[in-house]
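Feature request, filed as a ticket because there's no other form

It would be nice if the structure record came with a short human-readable summary line next to the tokens. Right now we just get the raw output. Example of a typical job, pasted below so the devs can see what we mean:
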Amino acid sequence: MQQTKRREQIVKVAIETIAEIGYAQASVGQIAKRAGISKGVFTYHFASKDDMMVQIVHEVYDAAARFMQPRIESETTPGGMLKAYIESNLAFMEAHRDYIAAVIEIVTNARTPDGKLRFADSSDDSILEPLIEILKWGEETGEFRTFSGQSARVAAAAIRSAIDGVGGRLAANAELDLSGCSEELVTLFLSAVRKPAAGGEPAGKGGKDA
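Raw output as currently delivered:
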């Protein structure tokens, strides 16, 4: 238990350090100093700085999933779930700005021994699966338009990219209006995926999932 708490403390300090001074300046020595521990204690818990960076990225994504899941699952319609997915993503960013800044620093700077970005592999798009499920459910219920071929995956990727883009903007501008971003993304993507009403107009707003 004590070792777990110490490890969590080091990760927390590392996130704060990277968010404040950047990836390059956040050395093992700097993180250890801010955590009030020796380098030996650091290396007892983490084999290297790279090992810690991987841990931080996983921790932030896990924390985001824990934050978002109950909000999404409390909804009872596809539109409500898509709205909650977008809003809870940006609400997590709002509540954990240091997390987002640190992850952006890590994924844009951490490199493998051969010089490639460590987190640049985009071949695993499993993060899109929850969105694809929401879109296909909406298609089945008739709330969303028909998706042909890979179009649901394309739409999910567009939504995910837009959300991730907000994270990048937040890292560059700590004063970014996340509430306004959230509202615009919800309006944009619900309009894009909803089934047109009679006459060709998108289904109207209103209700919990508007």
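Something like this underneath would help us a lot:
Residues 49-73 form the longest helix (25 residues).
Residues 1-46 form a domain with the Arc Repressor Mutant, subunit A fold (CATH 1.10.10.60).
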